[in-house]
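sry for the spam today, last one i promise. C-alpha cells for design, 383 residues
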C-alpha cells in the first residue's frame, strides 16, 4: 500500500512539473510567485524619450451596440469583470466603430498609457513596411547580410524571422529587472531558432535593423510608415540616454484608444480604412506559429491554443496582443477588437473571460460546435 501511495505522489509531482513547465509565468503567478517573463520596466524608469509623431486624427465613429449585433447585457458583464480586476479602460470596436467604452481611475479614451510591451507589434508592422519598401529582402534574411560586423560570426545566422519570433538565441533568461546589455553586445546562449524567450532584446534589435536598412531613425520610420498613417496621436519611445537608440518595446507611451487603430489594421490584413498600409500577406506572415512555441506568432499570441487552467477562447481565430496588464483581443472572423488597459493582472485573472462574454453576446457569432463539419453530438450533451 505504501508503495502505491509513493508512486501515486510521484506521478502527481511529474504531472504538475509538466503543466507548470508549459507556461511557468502563468502558473507561478497563480501561486503568488512574481516572475518576470521578459523584464518590462515602466516608461518613467528611462532617462530620456523621443517623440513618435502622429497625425492626430479624430477617433473612430461611435455606434450603438445593437446596430453591430452586440448584446448590451454581455458588454456590461464584461465591464463588471474588468472593473473588478482594477482595469483602467475597456473599449470594444466592431467593423471600425466604437460600440462600447468604460473608463476608471480618471482615464479617458485619450489618456496616455505605457504600452508595457505592446510596442513590439509596431516593430513587426514596421518590418513589413521595410520589406514593402525593399529595404529588407525577406523575413529569413540573416543579419550577417545586413550587418557586416556579424557576417563572419555565429550571430550572423540570426534572421529577421528569429527576431520576430523571439528565438534569436541571444541572452539568458533572468528573474529580475537588472540592467541588461544592448542587444549588439549580447552573445548567443542558444542556436538561433532553437529557443523561445520573451525578452526585450529581440524587438529592440529589430528596431536597430530597421534603422540600419532604411537609413532612418526607428521612431521616424515607424511613424511615417505605420503610426501616422493610421491616424494615431503623438506618442513617445523611451531611451537609456539622449544619444541612445530607443527601446521599441518597453516604454512606448501612447493614447490608449489608439491601440484600437492598430487592431483595425491587423483585422483588415494591413488595410486601414481604404489605405493599404502594408502588403496584405504580411499580417498572415506574422500569424504563422513559431515552430518551437505554437502558442505564438510574431509578438502575437494565438488563441487557438488555450492557456493552462483557463477556459478556452470561444473562437479559434482569436489573437492576443499583451503587455503587462494591457490586453487587446482581436477576432478577425467577427471584425471585433476588445481592449483592456491596466497596470497589472491580478493573480486570479481569467484571460478568456472578457472576450468570451463579448463574443457569446454577439448575435451573429456561431460557436465552433455549431459550424459545418462539427460533431453534432457536441450540441446535445449525452447523445
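last one done:
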Amino acid at each position: 500500500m505504501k508503495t502505491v501511495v509513493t508512486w501515486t505522489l510521484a506521478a502527481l509531482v511529474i504531472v504538475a512539473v509538466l503543466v507548470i513547465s508549459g507556461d511557468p509565468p502563468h502558473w507561478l503567478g497563480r501561486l503568488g510567485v512574481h516572475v518576470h517573463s521578459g523584464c518590462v520596466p515602466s516608461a518613467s524608469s528611462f532617462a530620456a524619450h523621443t517623440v513618435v509623431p502622429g497625425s492626430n486624427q479624430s477617433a473612430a465613429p461611435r455606434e450603438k451596440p445593437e446596430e453591430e449585433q452586440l448584446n448590451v447585457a454581455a458588454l456590461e458583464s464584461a465591464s463588471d469583470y474588468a472593473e473588478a480586476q482594477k482595469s483602467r479602460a475597456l473599449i470594444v470596436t466592431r467593423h471600425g466603430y466604437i460600440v462600447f467604452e468604460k473608463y476608471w481611475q480618471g482615464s479617458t479614451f485619450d489618456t496616455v498609457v505605457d504600452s508595457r510591451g505592446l510596442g513590439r507589434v509596431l516593430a513587426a508592422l514596421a518590418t513589413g513596411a521595410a520589406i514593402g519598401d525593399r529595404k529588407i529582402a525577406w523575413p529569413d534574411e540573416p543579419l550577417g547580410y545586413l550587418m557586416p560586423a556579424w557576417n563572419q560570426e555565429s550571430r550572423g545566422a540570426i534572421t529577421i524571422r528569429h527576431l520576430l519570433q523571439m528565438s534569436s538565441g541571444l541572452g539568458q533568461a533572468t528573474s529580475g529587472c537588472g540592467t541588461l546589455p544592448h542587444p549588439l553586445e549580447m552573445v548567443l546562449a542558444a542556436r538561433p531558432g532553437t529557443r523561445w524567450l520573451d525578452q526585450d532584446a529581440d524587438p529592440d534589435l529589430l528596431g536597430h535593423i530597421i534603422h540600419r536598412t532604411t537609413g532612418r531613425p526607428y521612431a521616424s520610420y515607424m511613424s511615417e510608415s505605420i503610426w501616422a498613417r493610421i491616424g494615431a496621436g503623438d506618442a513617445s519611445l523611451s531611451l537609456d540616454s539622449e544619444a541612445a537608440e530607443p527601446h521599441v518595446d518597453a516604454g512606448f507611451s501612447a493614447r490608449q484608444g489608439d491601440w484600437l487603430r492598430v487592431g483595425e489594421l491587423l483585422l483588415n490584413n494591413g488595410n486601414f480604412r481604404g489605405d493599404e498600409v502594408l502588403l496584405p500577406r504580411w499580417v498572415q506572415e506574422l500569424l504563422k506559429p513559431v515552430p518551437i512555441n505554437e502558442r505564438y506568432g510574431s509578438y502575437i499570441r494565438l488563441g487557438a491554443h488555450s492557456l493552462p487552467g483557463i477556459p478556452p477562447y470561444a473562437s479559434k481565430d482569436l489573437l492576443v496582443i499583451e503587455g503587462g496588464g494591457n490586453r487587446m483581443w482581436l477576432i478577425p472572423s467577427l471584425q471585433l477588437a476588445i481592449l483592456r488597459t491596466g497596470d497589472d493582472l491580478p493573480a486570479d485573472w481569467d484571460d478568456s473571460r472578457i472576450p468570451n462574454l463579448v463574443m457569446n453576446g454577439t448575435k451573429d457569432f456561431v460557436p465552433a460546435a455549431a459550424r459545418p463539419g462539427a460533431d453534432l453530438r457536441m450540441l446535445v450533451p449525452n447523445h
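DSSP finds eleven helices and twelve strands in the chain. ok im logging off now
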